[in-house]
Design brief:
With 288 residues, the protein is mainly β. The chain is 6% helix and 42% strand. Strand 12 and strand 13 form a beta hairpin.
Length: 288
């Protein structure tokens, strides 16, 4: 959907969209969607939930679609499809579970694989992060098995890759920063021992302008800001919780994002609806 500043609906397009979308500098929308289809190479009897990237114009009309399955098949990274879970294919067909898409702007790396307009995606069920060239309709770079069930990959301005690794630390979570070309691990949180980070699904990591990293630990309802040295300098814990059958349950915190340097005049200059009146600064009694 697209809504205006007053939350009035401008248009809606109802298809099998999921997880994530990104906007390019022309206002086009690059959205993830899924469609069931038979694919004889994978399984002639069971339909696969093929993830695709659909391009919509500013008015929400479809302009193009790229099959992620076919993008892998056309590429040197086709062998990664051997990681597909056959039991999951027969159960519900959700063999990719692509959970993120980012449009690269070319500022992060001089390497042609990461040129402006290419698409960075996260394919959870393959434990893979990949770059799709939408012009060629194929995967031009992919890295798998350095993490498990990952979320929210981002190519930073220094050319490194930051992501939330859900289960790659012996079944626990971590945030990693790697060189996507050499595969060198440059930074991770937490380090050995110390802080216990865990979210079996979702999760986010945002590198801030001060060099710290803002981490959303979704299923624990927590967000923390950590320094390069791994020191926690700020924490938020969702206060909404219940006691169910003697077990404490906390409301998930899906994403916490710091809006650094973003101009939001429509928010700053407009009072919230039904906001309480502000107390007067003049506390003297009114004149009789």
């Amino acid at each position: 959907i697209r809504i205006d500043v007053d939350s009035s609906l401008l248009w809606a397009r109802c298809e099998s969209y999921h997880h994530d979308l990104s906007l390019d500098d022309q206002g086009r929308i690059w959205a993830l969607r899924s469609d069931l289809r038979l694919h004889e190479t994978l399984d002639a009897r069971h339909r696969v939930l093929d993830n695709s990237i659909e391009v919509l114009d500013v008015g929400g009309k479809s302009q193009d679609r790229i099959s992620i399955l076919e993008a892998f098949e056309r590429s040197p990274f086709a062998p990664q499809l051997s990681r597909i879970d056959r039991k999951r294919l027969k159960k519900n067909g959700d063999v990719f579970h692509t959970n993120a898409i980012r449009i690269l702007n070319g500022s992060a790396s001089n390497h042609p694989l990461f040129r402006a307009g290419n698409l960075l995606i996260s394919v959870r069920e393959l434990d893979a992060v990949a770059v799709v060239d939408p012009r060629a309709g194929k995967v031009v770079w992919s890295l798998a098995s350095m993490w498990r069930r990952q979320h929210d990959p981002n190519l930073l301005d220094d050319g490194t890759l930051l992501l939330f690794d859900n289960l790659g630390r012996g079944g626990r979570s971590r945030v990693v920063d790697i060189d996507p070309i050499t595969q060198e691990l440059l930074w991770s949180f937490p380090a050995a021992g110390g802080y216990d980070l865990y979210s079996d699904c979702c999760g986010k990591a945002q590198r801030l302008s001060n060099g710290n990293t803002l981490i959303t630990e979704t299923t624990r309802g927590r967000a923390i800001e950590v320094t390069r040295e791994g020191r926690v300098v700020w924490e938020f814990v969702n206060p909404h919780r219940i006691d169910e059958g003697g077990e404490a349950r906390i409301a998930s915190l899906f994403v916490l994002l710091r809006l650094e340097g973003r101009r939001l005049p429509w928010l700053r200059n407009s009072p919230l609806p039904d906001s309480p009146p502000q107390p007067s600064k003049d506390r003297r009694a009114p004149a009789s």
